[in-house]
Amino acid sequence: MTVGTADAVGDDAVLGALVAVEIALTRAWAVVGDAPAELAERVSTQLGWSGPGLLALGHGIDLAELATAAVDGGNPVIPLVGRLRSRVPESDRAWVHRGATSQDVLDSAVMLLARGVGHTIVQHLGEVDASLVALAVRHRDEVAVARTLGQHAVPTTVGLRAATWLVGVRRARRRLEHALAHLPAQLGGAAGTLSAFVEHARVAHGAEAEQVVERLVAAFANELDLAVPEHPWHTVRWPVTELGDALVQTIDSLGVIAGDVATLARTEIGELVESAPGGSSAMPHKRNPAASVLIRSAALRAPQLGATLHLAAALAVDERPDGAWHAEWPTVRELLRLALGAAGTASRLTAGLAVDLAAVARNLDQSAGLLVTERLAIVLGPIIGIDRARSIVAAATSVDDLERVLHAEPGLAGHDIAALLDPAAYLGLAGTLVDRATTLGEGS
């Protein structure tokens, strides 16, 4: 969907995250004073440490060979540990993966990967925000047809439609930011008891072992720039489901925009035009809403991926799930890929979205006074009776027919029928709602 999207969540990125987690653990042992500082720096350098919260580069691990070796153990961490240890001096090897289990490394790596990709998604949502504000302000008072259940309903404005999109995107952005800020590292040991960490610490610190392990967990999370976990979450999968839900909501909000643009860009409607429409291999005249189509495809897939994460969370049995945990890895990656691609595409779409004001006016004229039948029933009821008012507006088959009947109604003599039928006079709080949405500020 966006250049670089696949790379951001690809196998190389996952491997970089896994290696970064292993380095972070060694560095954490040095922070609590067990491993020599120079050893931690040596391991960091030899395994391609890029800095706190960053993927490790230059680790020298063969991705294809590791993937083949991962099949036997059911996850890539088991063969990875041996390969990492072989790349450091023998005297340093005991500090690689010290006390950890495979799930500690994989869960932390997924969180690390998600945090980095998530921040890029948030950046794109900020770009969408700015474009929608400009669109809403520019067309604040441009009267247009509102559609409900696919039919002309009442008057609205082009600006309010954009402001409504904006409200959805902002809500999703806030939720994603919250989820990213609370992504925790994982460190629980073989069965979530941290027993190996305590034992290692007890050898060096005696009775202070438990306090040392608490500091170790915090140091580990800090090295990864992740939240410090309150509790090992091997089978309590809220970090994954809350992240997934935030990503789905993000894609949902963009899907609404894409769906509206695709509809309003139809030939017979023509109110919106993408700045870079797609062509056709067979029909040279086509100007397809290609960006909207791509976003909609992501919006159609995302909810099922989110459901998979909840299903896996519900089946996270024992002290390590037998398959449910494994189902999360590709699912989270695909959700990240879809959200990143949809957000990047939406940024370009909204930045170049054009409004065809002539088409907006043409569609408005198709129904004109019929759009205000709701208003007529309210206003005319006290004058000619609610039943008569409703029968008039219900029987109208065209704007001209409605206007003719109203002029002929004895009880309405002297009333300004043209003003009653003016769609621009029945916009409610549309302008106020636009102002409220666009003046709250980006990220509010």
TrEMBL record:
Domain Adenylosuccinate lyase C-terminal: 368-438
SUPFAM superfamilies: L-aspartase-like (SSF48557)
This protein's name: Lyase family protein
Family per similarity comment: Belongs to the class-II fumarase/aspartase family.
Biological classification of the source: Bacteria, Bacillati, Actinomycetota, Actinomycetes, Micrococcales
Matching PROSITE patterns: FUMARATE_LYASES
Gene Ontology MF terms in the entry: lyase activity
Classification via Gene3D superfamilies: Fumarase/aspartase (C-terminal domain) (1.10.40.30), Fumarase/aspartase (Central domain) (1.20.200.10)
InterPro entries named in the record: AdenyloSucc_lyase_C (IPR019468), Fumarate_lyase_CS (IPR020557), Fumarate_lyase_fam (IPR000362), Fumarate_lyase_N (IPR022761), L-Aspartase-like (IPR008948)
